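Hi F.,

I've been meaning to write this up properly since the lab meeting, where we talked about keeping a consistent format for the predictions we share between groups. The idea is simple: the sequence comes first, exactly as it goes in, then the structure tokens exactly as they come out, then a line or two of notes. No screenshots and no reformatting. I'm using this chain as the first example so we have something concrete to point to.
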Amino acid sequence: MIISEQKTRQSFAEFVALMSLLMALVALSIDAMLPALSQLGSDLQIQNANERQLVISMIFLGLAVGQLFFGPLSDSTGRKLANYIGLALFIGGALLCMFAVTFPMLLAGRLLQGIGASAPRVVTLAIVRDQFSGRAMARIMSFVMTVFILVPMLAPSMGQAVLQSAGWRAIFGIYVLLALVALLWFALRQPETLAVENRAPFTGRQIVNAVQEVLKNRLALGYTVTAGFVSGAFIGYLNSAQQIFQEQYALGTLFPIYFGVIASSIWLASLLNSQLVMRLGMRFLVRNSLLLIFGLSAVALGGLVFAGQVSLWVFITYLMLTFFCVGILFGNMNALAMEPLGQVAGIGAAIVGSLSTLISVLLGTAIGQSYNGTILPLVIGLTVLSGLSLMVVRWAER
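Output, unedited:
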């Protein structure tokens, strides 16, 4: 009865806004730090500039680990408790970073932040799935994901503003403040959506069975690996973006603006995807988007080999076309990976998300650490991983 009364007090707009805030914490935690990497590295006396990229990679590693835990936990104890624990870990990680005196201490905080951020990411999807289905669910997730994708366009500018006025440690203070707002709002206004009788015990066997289900299903495994490859190339870009734009192309404080313009191509793709998928189908879009990325990257790689460095505007055009295709891929690959896992949908989503994120963070870190003052490592990474993705998709669909 209490839950029912709470539901009547929560409007549709408030529900979407709350879910959007919870999802936005993940994107904000990654992209708002990008302009601060140089100053952070100087203050913490990081000798190798590429090591600064680990500030980004560690949060993805935390997301990979955390999803395996918070997915089953939310099915066992309910959505609210799992989210409370996750947000508390996120706040603890942000505070650890805020007061870090060494680089390893900062990385430990980022890992904790990533583990904590995985809870609102998992719980948000579960809460929407608990209450809605079919077109209603698609409508809500469309609103939520639109906000989620808008955040990377704006987060670096926010980070730049905080950096210039209060220093990089204040960015972590913003994370703490936003997480506290989300925690209080969620506690006071969001009802529990998983009834006690529908909860499943949290056991190791449950996770093992779901992992086996994913590994033995060709479609689920193939599209999970493909999602990891594509996301790995994108993380490689995130890791090296600050060095490429601020140092190689000497954009300085203009970096967040250029970053936001490039990110807008992913946002546009996500808006168009819902219409394109109804006309052309997910598999057609995935195959042709991968072909376009591979073709664009192969041409760019050839140009770099023969002509050397490219102009900023040529590079931006290449990235916008490539990331438009990446925006088409993101939603469709996860949906295709989940399609054969209906019988283990909850834990299956956690396994798919965790495995693809783990693959992507390893590959993205390797691409970022290969940065040598040119865009060559990034273009090679996009070429190789899109080519491998095409091969894996052919294997999965065979």
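Notes:
Residues 134-166 form the longest helix (33 residues).
Residues 223 and 337 are 5 Å apart (CA to CA).

If this format works for you, I'll send the rest the same way.

G.
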